[in-house]
């Protein structure tokens, strides 16, 4: 778990070299979740770290993975209005019609 904490810290601070280093040693980190259920991709997208998002996607981060509320990285960037990140996620296969757990079902 120590590596996961370091990994999420490196994402938040934008330390691309540390991210690359940790992924080389522990490639499974790209799919891990933090205590709130955030994946590295969702976490990086939340902080508008486009270069980190690109790095994670190049390491096969699961683009449609969800957090504890069912949010994907695309849902998060759409909510925040980050068009560039939305386009990047779509390029890597993000599901455009994904819904979180809060979506009203008719």
Can you put this structure into words, describing what you see?
- This is Ankyrin-like protein.
- This protein is an all-alpha fold and 106 residues long.
- It has one domain: Ankyrin repeat-containing domain (Serine Threonine Protein Phosphatase 5, Tetratricopeptide repeat), CATH 1.25.40.20.
- Helix 3 runs antiparallel to helix 4.
List the helices and strands and how they pair.
Blueprint: H1 2-13, H2 16-25, H3 40-46, H4 50-58, H5 73-80, H6 83-91
Helix pairs in contact: 1-2, 3-4, 3-5, 4-6, 5-6
Keywords: ANK repeat, Repeat
Protein name: Ankyrin-like protein
ANK repeats: 36-68, 69-101
CATH superfamily: Ankyrin repeat-containing domain
Q: Helix and strand succession?
A: HHHHHH
Q: Could you tell me the number of beta strands?
A: 0
Q: What's the CATH architecture?
A: Alpha Horseshoe
Task: Give me the CATH fold name.
Answer: Serine Threonine Protein Phosphatase 5, Tetratricopeptide repeat
pLDDT under 50 segments (min length 5)? none
**Percent of residues in beta strands:** under 5%
Number of helices: 6
Distance between the termini: 40 Å
Mean pLDDT: 92
Which outline best applies?
A: globular
* CATH class category name: Mainly Alpha
Protein structure class: mainly alpha
What's the multimeric state?
single chain
Largest sheet: none
């Amino acid at each position: 778990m120590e590596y996961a904490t370091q990994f999420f810290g490196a994402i938040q601070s934008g330390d691309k070299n540390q991210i690359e280093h940790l992924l080389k040693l522990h490639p499974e980190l790209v799919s891990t979740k933090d205590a709130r259920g955030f994946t590295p991709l969702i976490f990086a997208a939340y902080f508008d770290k486009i270069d980190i998002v690109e790095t994670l996607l190049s390491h096969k981060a699961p683009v449609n993975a969800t957090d504890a509320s069912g949010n994907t990285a695309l849902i998060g960037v759409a909510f925040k209005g980050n068009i560039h990140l939305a386009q990047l996620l779509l390029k890597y296969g993000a599901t455009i019609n994904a819904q979180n757990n809060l979506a009203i079902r008719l």
